[in-house]
Write a structure and sequence with these properties.
alpha+beta; five-stranded antiparallel sheet
Length: about 300
């Protein structure tokens, strides 16, 4: 029996939510290296240390959870734990920290996903899990899905069908749509499969010499950036260097992804009608070109 929290939704292929390239797991970025220019993304999520923390109520209100503060906080810890590469207590600020490492498509300034053809996805069959869990992104814990879905469907310009003929996809905290539910589970499984790679990245971060060698910042720098409201973004080559050094990808795979990324960046530069190219993009191109014909030493 459906609860009062049931929500209906059908995609109308308006393409409005594809207003930038997707975020994805590291292995997905590798599989799509010939499709998207990607960056390595670091974010530190903060949770109250307990439901008695001074800012727990503020966090709960912002989360949009449908359950009380204590179970909502326990749920959030479990859910972030699926994706976090590091968990750390910060007693000074009465919080728990969760380091998230992912990949994200570089913003090319066009205001739309590079894979869009008209309003339709040009890589629909191989699209990242992020896209498969729209409009209930896998980063959201179950008790926050209703609030997130309501915000999504009410976004100005979106043409989502939420009428009585649309299928019910959410019943309270339970995902009813089988495809989205399966994709949310797949996101957790993919994050688990990528855990070794992310652990190696964290090990490099903790070693100043090795971090400098591949171009990684310190955890303290990532945290400071996060506390200022910003994610830390680096060319994806940094993650691929670690993967090649640690044997997670082969030398041939490393060379191939560098070649693919260099080709995509050169294509973007050639299509740039404004005549301005960012220094970051040119720097990434130089790095990929320098690495594409050599194998990093162990």
């Amino acid at each position: 029996m459906m609860q009062s929290g049931a929500r209906r939704f059908a995609c109308t292929s308006c393409g409005r939510c594809c207003n930038r390239g997707p975020e994805m797991e590291l292995s997905e970025a590798t599989a799509l290296a010939g499709t998207f220019v990607t960056s390595l993304l670091f974010r530190v999520h903060s949770l109250p240390a307990s439901d008695r923390s001074g800012w727990a109520k503020q966090w709960w209100d912002k989360s949009g959870s449908r359950i009380p503060i204590r179970p909502a906080l326990e749920e959030a810890r479990r859910h972030l734990g699926h994706f976090a590469s590091r968990k750390r207590a910060d007693k000074l600020r009465d919080r728990q920290l969760f380091l998230d490492i992912s990949a994200i498509v570089d913003d090319d300034g066009e205001g739309r996903c590079p894979a869009l053809i008209g309003n339709l996805c040009g890589i629909y069959e191989t699209r990242p899990i992020t896209c498969r869990t729209v409009p209930m992104h896998y980063s959201r814990a179950p008790s926050t899905l209703q609030n997130g879905l309501d915000q999504f469907t009410s976004t100005s310009g979106y043409e989502c069908d939420t009428g009585p003929a649309a299928p019910i996809i959410l019943d309270g905290n339970r995902v009813v749509d089988d495809a989205i539910g399966t994709s949310r589970d797949q996101a957790i499984a993919t994050a688990k499969a990528d855990r070794t790679w992310k652990d190696r990245i964290v090990a490099f971060i903790d070693d100043g010499d090795r971090a400098a060698r591949v171009g990684l910042p310190s955890f303290e720098a990532i945290l400071a950036h996060s506390d200022s409201g910003y994610a830390t973004m680096l060319p994806m080559i940094v993650a691929w260097r670690v993967a090649a050094i640690e044997g997670i990808i082969s030398p041939e795979q490393f060379e191939e992804v560098c070649r693919q990324q260099a080709a995509l960046i050169k294509g973007r530069i050639a299509r740039n009608v404004r005549g301005t190219v960012s220094g970051e993009l040119l720097g990434a191109l130089a790095a990929y070109q320098a690495e594409s014909s050599k194998v990093p030493a162990r």
